[in-house]
Amino acid sequence: MSGPSKRPIGDPPEAGAAPEPVDIPWVDIHQHTQSLTWNDREKFDLSGGQAAVAIAAGYYWAPYRPVSSDDVRFLWDDALRRAAAFDHRHFYDQYVAVGIHTWSRVENADELVSVLPEYCEDDRVIAIGETGIESTQHTTSWPLEGQKEVVREQFRVARDTGLPVLVHTPGSSKGDVDPRHVQSYEEGNRNFTDPLLSSDDPKTEAVEIDLALADEVGLPDEQLVIDHAGRSVRDFVLENTGCYLAYSVSAPWLRGIDARDIAAAIDAHGSDRIVVDTDLIGAMDNDPFVMKRTMLDLLRLGVDREDVRRVVYENPREILDLA
Ligand SMILES: [Zn+2]
């Protein structure tokens, strides 16, 4: 036997060689804050959260089925009330996005479109959405022509108010969900309706329709955030449009993307129009520290600090006009 063990992992680093502290703040443009807990929101405070946008419409919490315009209006009002309570008790600013989501058909959606401009006047409402063409719905199918009408009209309100639109894109349904998580996803695969889009790349097909609708009403690309980015739309959006592209990082087991995809996108296209959001939602497995963890992963992958700061903080602030 030899004597007392020596340091088993080598000498401590030279002064200055240790990693710099990660003190980059973040702003999350897309989360379903009203479905999270107080402890989740405290983790935003603990991990550098400066602001977050709660998506007001989520038919998940609609009190009745089928979902009517009154149910969605209830959700908008509820999100606004909760947001006011949240940011008096936390250290980040809680904002709200108001819109008509297409993941379940909404009856009399035109009634919502007509009051949307009033909601946009609320100081707390800083984006429209999430909305955008979907291929499948969770409850009742919403034929494409009806979806186009309601998405186009929301784009028209965005043009008139100057607010950005968070454009939901398909791709997290009817996929091969990791069986360890599928039971945790309350709105899981078995509820989905048959797909309406015919191609094997519904995400790109939906984005093309969304862009055509934006063109119809003259909504500038810079006001569009193409959300839930996937590999198939990356180059198309960043090369052929002026839109922002947002990666939703809270459920890699569902969306099939992680920090490596974001690092590769920054490498290929620069960080000017790339955004990280969480899409945190209480209806499925989630990690309230996911924004901070993604930042650490990006730094470990060799992404420059300035680029990390741009995709989690500067770009979100620019989109939301918080700068
Ligand atoms: Zn979405």
TrEMBL record:
Map out region (Disordered) in residue numbers. 1-21
Q: Which UniProt keywords apply?
A: Hydrolase
From the Swiss-Prot or TrEMBL record, what is one GO molecular function term? hydrolase activity
Q: Which residue windows does the record flag with biased composition (Low complexity)? A: 12-21
Which Gene3D superfamilies does the record match to this protein?
Metal-dependent hydrolases
Q: What is this protein called?
A: TatD family hydrolase
